Amino acid sequence: MVVGGGLAGCEAALQLANAGHDVTLVEMRPVRGTEAHQSENLGELVCTNSFKSVHPTNAHGQLKREMRALGSVLLDCADATSVPAGSALAVDRQLFSEAMTHAVDSHPGIEVVREEGGELPEGPAIVATGPLTSDALSSAIQRALGDEGLAFYDAIAPIVHRDSLDESIVFEAGRFEEDSDYLNCPMDKTEYLVFIEALLAGDVYEGPDWDAVPYFEGCLPIEVMASRGEDTPRFGPMKPIGLTDPRSGARPYAVVQLRREDRAGQMWNLVGFQTRLRTGAQKSVFQLIPGLERCEFLRWGSIHRNAYLNFPACLTPHGSLKERPDLIFAGQLTGVEGYTESAASGILAGINLGRVLRGEPPVVPPPTTMLGGLFRYLRESAPDRFQPMNSNWGLVDPLKQRVKNKAQKREMLAERAETDFRAWMEASGIQSPAGGLVGRT
């Protein structure tokens, strides 16, 4: 059984059916609608109509190459319904969802059942119900995982790449010299006031009614904090207490701290900077921070409604319940962000449920690949601050040699990912319907 007829659920169902299994796909629409969906089609896109870049030196493009090698139905349907969008893969959303629905409905091995699932399936299953999981099923998941297993909103701060920081300004230190695990961006009074003014004037995303969530004092958007008073952020996440700027030998007027997100130290989180600024505003405002003038954003900040599981605390490396390897979670519910990320996790869930049913061990690609790097993040993040993530090059293992040229570095990362993904597929006995990684891009 596959629960959920979104991108991940469709990919998972077709992976299993193509492997010879009889699949029941349960989708609650139109028996019960959601605040976001407009139709009863499977694979409906509720946000943008773009699947982002197809170029393999882009993280999203590399993920697409890996998905094509695994036989992604999403990408086949996207190719058939694409609209001009430069280097991005964009689609006519109505035609796309119709193509996804046809791909599932026409498969002889899949039965689509339109009903609301209120309990976790007892037999082999994949649950891919997305961020708008029904209250009944959310309660069942929470009972299975415990009180800390399911979150209902995101409070996400931006993440930047270490290589893009100005090392002449940013310094390593912890407050009161307790440790040096943080990177610090110091501000004088003028820089701070300019930043606050830009922050308050920034374009804020309001979102549709279903996207609204209450703000908790522990995760206020940085712009909401600033609206409470000019010095409020300076007495909150931007407090300079216990820090000394090595350039001046004095305490900064304010400071932005960055916290490591990965073991290799490539991804750094702006501490306390969850925000509802639009992405363009985030770029222009946050690049006013000294040391971040040319920073590369690996993830944008956001606060929005989104049910997701605490993957590193509650699930196995392949996304199942710890006591039930045949009950696998997939899609945005697992803490991945984005259409292709959700679909890719559904593909892997379908592959691994098939392996479990055949008595074979589940498999996950190596962290030199985009899908493998994403799953490593899901399983190795700190459970007490786990937050959803999209694909980016900061997730994969760094190259052994330092490469300063960004374009050359991305080419080398993509070439290594291609080689390693092909080797993983061969070692795992996974056949590629697309004829290998050299197929369409």
Give a description of the structure.
This protein is of the alpha+beta class. The protein folds into 2 domains: 2-154 and 305-428, 3-Layer(bba) Sandwich (FAD/NAD(P)-binding domain); 159-300, Elongation Factor Tu (Ef-tu), domain 3 (Beta Barrel), CATH 2.40.30. The protein contains 12 helices and 17 strands. The strands form 4 sheets. The protein has a 6-stranded mixed beta sheet, covered by helices on one side. It starts with a strand and ends in a 13-residue tail after the last helix.
CATH superfamily of the largest domain: FAD/NAD(P)-binding domain
Tally of alpha and pi helices: 12
Q: How many DSSP-defined strands?
A: 17
Would you state the CATH class of the largest domain? Alpha Beta
Distance between the termini: 32 Å
What is the topology, as strand order, of the major beta sheet? Answer: 6-2-1-7-17-16
Sheet with most strands:
6 strands, mixed
> What structural category arises from helix and sheet content?
alpha+beta
Name the beta content range.
15-25%
What is the name of the CATH architecture of the largest domain?
3-Layer(bba) Sandwich
Radius of gyration: 22 Å
Helix content: 25-40%
Catalogue the unreliable spans: 213-217, 435-441
Can you tell me the CATH topology of the largest domain?
FAD/NAD(P)-binding domain
Q: How do the helices and strands follow one another from N- to C-terminus?
A: EHEEHHEEHEEHEEEEHHEEHEEHEEHHH
Q: Looking at the structure, what is the overall shape?
A: globular
Number of separate structural domains: 2
Mean pLDDT: 88
